[in-house]
Amino acid sequence: MSVNCVDASIEIANDNRIPLMLIASRRQIDSADFGGGYVNNWTTEEFSKYVIENDKRGYVLLARDHGGPWQNTIEKEKKLSLRQAMESAKKSYEADIRSGFQIIHIDPSEDIFGRSSTDEILERVYELLDFCTDISRKTNNDIAFEIGTEEQSGGMNTSEELEHVLSSVMNFCEKNTIPKPLFVVMQTGTKVMETKNVGTFDTPFRIADEIPAEIQIPKMIELCEKYGIYMKEHNTDYLSTEALRWHPKVGIHAANVAPEFGVEETRAFLELLEANKQKKLAERFLKLAYDSNKWNKWMLPGTDATDRDRSIIAGHYVFATPEFLEIKAEAVKALPSIDIEAHLKSRVKESILRYVKGFRLIV
């Protein structure tokens, strides 16, 4: 979500000697051919170089999140055809592999021309698995695959859906001597909206037409074990600490978290400005974030969120803009006795450590 988030992750992984994945969507980080991404304006090549140089003990895994056609804003804006979007996605994947990414998420579920069937998506999965494996072998860069879609319903995948996808993909990989996927992304009852998790996982109440997580998830894990693949949960942000502690108990192997850390850094910066009588700088930041409209996709229907709430949700999207860098530079000048970057990184670290401890990576 930011340089501070990357640095915090690297330090936690190295200090505690535990593996952490830095997973970049194509909107966050993309190759130079696509103009980079909104996180520090990094290209894939620059981001990879930065992490590899700073990850002294080698505990950080570079991973692509939601690679695939139409997963980059440019491809949507240009309304690329399926064939064009697939070729564009391949170009992005090739940059990932050549830059040392170790885990590649194959997610061709986006379709700007309508909803695709599971079998149509699977055909695209096969094509991209074949392409990435070929590039991996040509460049002598070993990679692992992740499959699954980015749709977040807040409910559960059905075991029938999962069985069909896993059996189909595993059969394809076996027939074509392609490495079998390491992870499958699954819906476990998590969904992020605004600054809360509104899915079924963390609710104390039974949801109509939903099988409780403690019953459904073990069934999914049984299937994962049958096919020799690990379960990864998306949209883990904002779950309670108690819910996080249940993850290793029920057998969830990995989880993705993102916006919570960006929101935490945004709040830390605003609180620092306001506590030190830098109201004008705080107001400029709030307006910049609000005007970005990046909060729009996160809002609940009929929300009572304030403009300030919206700005906090969108804050991390503007961290790399010239306007924000100017605000931060003025803050550094106005508050010479405070190490602002160290303060922000510390707050992000606290947020990340809640997950590291919840998953029992450290005591």
Task: Outline the structure in words.
Residues 152-156 have low confidence and may be disordered. The protein is globular, with a radius of gyration of 21 Å. It is an alpha/beta fold. 50% of the residues lie in helices and 10% in strands. The strands form two sheets. The chain has a seven-stranded parallel β-sheet with strand order 1-2-3-4-5-8-9. A two-stranded antiparallel sheet has the order 6-7. It has helices at residues 3-16, 44-54, 73-77, 82-98, 118-139, 159-175, 213-227, 241-250, 259-275, 279-291, 307-314, 322-334, 340-358, and strands at residues 20-24, 60-67, 103-106, 144-147, 183-186, 192-193, 196-197, 230-233, 254-255. It folds into two domains: 3-260, TIM Barrel (Alpha-Beta Barrel), CATH 3.20.20; 261-350, no CATH class. It is built from 13 helices and nine strands. β6 and β7 form a beta hairpin.
Task: Break the fold down into its secondary structure elements and pairings.
Elements: H1 3-16, E1 20-24, H2 44-54, E2 60-67, H3 73-77, H4 82-98, E3 103-106, H5 118-139, E4 144-147, H6 159-175, E5 183-186, E6 192-193, E7 196-197, H7 213-227, E8 230-233, H8 241-250, E9 254-255, H9 259-275, H10 279-291, H11 307-314, H12 322-334, H13 340-358
Helix pairs in contact: 1-13, 4-5, 5-6, 6-7, 8-13, 9-10, 9-13, 10-11, 10-12
Condensed summary:
With 363 residues, this protein is α/β, with parallel strands linked by helices.
